[in-house]
Design brief:
- The chain is an alpha/beta fold.
- Helices cover 30% and strands 29% of the residues.
- The protein has helices at 2-6, 8-17, 21-29, 98-101, 167-175, 203-216, 226-239, 259-268, 289-295, 306-318; strands spanning 42-49, 55-59, 63-67, 82-88, 91-97, 111-117, 120-126, 128-136, 151-157, 160-165, 195-199, 219-223, 245-250, 276-281, 299-302.
- The chain is globular, with a radius of gyration of 20 Å.
C-alpha cells in the first residue's frame, strides 16, 4: 500500500499528459493487481475537480482515458448539458458538461474524462485530473444530506475528503432512463412471488431493478451496501426468513463491503452458500467470466437492460 501511495504523484503526472487510450491503459496496468482480486474489498479511484474546492472520484475501471478537448459537433434536440458529439478512436460519443450539472461554471482549461459503463461511452468535462488512489471500501461512508443525489459515498484520504459520483444517476438525468420491461415479460413468475435481495448503492439502479423485478412478479428487498446485505442475510438465516429468499442481485461498487467481498462471504458461509448470486454491474468491459469464477458468483449481467436482467432472473430462479 505504501508503495502504491508513493507512486501517486508519478501517476498524477502521467494522467495530466495522457492523450490516447494506450497511455491510459499503461497507467491502469500499473495498479496493483490485488485491487482487482475478489474479496480484497479495495477500490482504485481516479480523483478529479470541477473548478471549486470539492474533490470528486470515479472508479478507474470506468475510465478509458483522460484527454484534452477536441472538436465538437453540435447536435439539436439533446439535453442542454450535452455540449455536442466528439469522435475519438473512430467512435462518436456525447460530451457532457459535468461542472454545470452540479451547479458550477465551465472550467477555463477543461479536460475530458472518457468513460464506458452501462454499455455506453461518453466524455465528461472536468476542470482537472489529479491522481489515482487506493482506498479500503470499508472506509467509504454514506453521503450526508447535503451531498445531493449524485453522490454515492464519501471517503477520507491523506489528501482530504472525496465525493464518489453516481455516474448512473448523472447519465439518467442527461440521457434518460433505459426502457422499461415490455408487457410480454410481466407476471412471468406467476403466483410464486419469490423474494429477491437487491444490493446497490445507486438509488437509480435500485429503482430500475425494483421496477423490473416487480413487473416479473418477484418481491424485491432493497439494500444500499454489502455490509447491510450480509447482516440482513445472517439475521434472516436465524429467523427462518431465508427460506423465502431465492436470489441475491449485487452491484460491485458499494461502501462498507463491495460485491466481490459480499459474494465471497455468502459462498463461504455454511448457512448462506446455497443462495444464488447474480452480479450486476456497469463495469461490463473488464469483468464477466473471470469475475464470476474468482468470487463464486453464479452469473454476471452488465447494467442495464431490463430484458437481460429479467431473463437472467428467470433462469436463476428456475435453477433453485
Amino acid at each position: 500500500m505504501k508503495g502504491r501511495l508513493e507512486n501517486a504523484g508519478r501517476d498524477a503526472q502521467v494522467i495530466g499528459a495522457v492523450a490516447d487510450r494506450g497511455a491510459m491503459s499503461a497507467l491502469l496496468d500499473r495498479i496493483d493487481e490485488q485491487t482487482r482480486l475478489a474479496g480484497h474489498n479495495r477500490l482504485a479511484l481516479l480523483i478529479f475537480g470541477l473548478g471549486d474546492a470539492v474533490r470528486y472520484a470515479v472508479n478507474v475501471f470506468k475510465v478509458l482515458e483522460v484527454t484534452p478537448p477536441s472538436t465538437l459537433t453540435p447536435v439539436a434536440g439533446v439535453h442542454p448539458l450535452v455540449q455536442g458529439l466528439a469522435e475519438l478512436r473512430g467512435q462518436l460519443m456525447p460530451v457532457i458538461a459535468l461542472p454545470q450539472l452540479l451547479g458550477g461554471s465551465p472550467p477555463a482549461h477543461p479536460q475530458w474524462v472518457v468513460t464506458e459503463f452501462n454499455g455506453r461511452r461518453q466524455a465528461f468535462i472536468v476542470a482537472n485530473v489529479e491522481r489515482i488512489v487506493h482506498v479500503d471500501v470499508a472506509k467509504l461512508q454514506a453521503p450526508d444530506a447535503q451531498s445531493g443525489e449524485a453522490i454515492t459515498g464519501l471517503v477520507e484520504t491523506p489528501q482530504g475528503w472525496l465525493k464518489l459520483l453516481d455516474f448512473e444517476h448523472v447519465l439518467a438525468r442527461i440521457i434518460g432512463e433505459p426502457p422499461e420491461l415490455p408487457d410480454a415479460w410481466r407476471g412471468r413468475l406467476g403466483d410464486h412471488a419469490p423474494e429477491v435481495l437487491v444490493v446497490d448503492d445507486s438509488s437509480v439502479a435500485r429503482g430500475q431493478m425494483q421496477r423490473t423485478l416487480t413487473a416479473l412478479g418477484a418481491q424485491p428487498i432493497l439494500l444500499n451496501d454489502g455490509a447491510q446485505a450480509l447482516a440482513w442475510l445472517l439475521q434472516a438465516s436465524e429467523s427462518g426468513r431465508l427460506a423465502r429468499v431465492k436470489l441475491v442481485i449485487s452491484d460491485l461498487e458499494m461502501p462498507q463491503l463491495d460485491g466481490y467481498a459480499l459474494t465471497a462471504r455468502i459462498k463461504e458461509h455454511p448457512r448462506l452458500k446455497h443462495l444464488r448470486v447474480l452480479l450486476h454491474s456497469s463495469l461490463s468491459g473488464r469483468f464477466n467470466a473471470d469475475l464470476v469464477a474468482k468470487v463464486g458468483a453464479d452469473r454476471f449481467v452488465p447494467k442495464f437492460s431490463s430484458e437481460a436482467l429479467a431473463n437472467a432472473v428467470l433462469e436463476d430462479l428456475s435453477a433453485v
